[in-house]
Specification:
By secondary structure, this protein is an all-beta fold. Helix content is about 0%, strand content about 80%. The radius of gyration is 21 Å and the shape is elongated.
């Protein structure tokens, strides 16, 4: 699940997800390295909700069933200098 708070509101989404990835780092000399990584994610959201906490302490929650899925990728490449 993923949860976010903003003021008196709390937003939450629930559902399974998985992430896989890996990386490599190679020394190009005594003080320079090259590194890269790749990551892939799969999510399937099942439910979203918003909760409001009133100033008096009461709460109101709205829950909505959803059927949403998706993929995400991330690729990074970097150069490091060791001092």
């Amino acid at each position: 699940s993923l949860e976010s708070r903003r003021g008196r509101f709390t937003y939450k989404t629930e559902g399974p997800g998985a992430a896989f990835g890996g990386g490599v780092q190679a020394m190009l000399g005594a003080r320079v390295s090259l590194h890269g990584s790749w990551r892939i994610e799969r999510v399937y959201w099942k439910e979203a909700s918003a909760t409001y906490i009133a100033p008096g302490g009461g709460t109101t929650t709205i829950t909505v069933p959803i059927d949403e899925s998706g993929w995400a990728n991330k690729f990074t490449l970097g150069l490091g200098v060791w001092l």
